[in-house]
Amino acid sequence: MIRSRAFAVAARQCLRRASQQPRWVPGCSQVPCRSYAVAKQDQVAKFKGKTGSDGKYTVTLIEGDGIGPEISQSVKDIYSAANVPIKWEPVDVTPRLKDGKTVIPDEAIQSVRKNYVALKGPLATPIGKGHVSLNLTLRRTFNLFANVRPCKSIAGYKTPYDNVNLVLVRENTEGEYSGIEHVVVDGVVQSIKLITREASERVLRFAFQYAEGIGKPKVRVVHKATIMKMSDGLFLSTARDISKEFPNVQFDTELLDNACLKITTDPAPYSDKVLVMPNLYGDILSDMCAGLIGGLGLTPSGNIGDECSIFEAVHGSAPDIAGRGLANPTALLLSSIMMLQHMGLNHYADKIQNATFATLAEGKMLTGDLGGRAKTHEYADAIIRKLKV
Question: Residue 235 class from Cβ within 10 Å (0-12 exposed, 13-18 middle, 19+ buried)?
Answer without folding.
Answer: buried
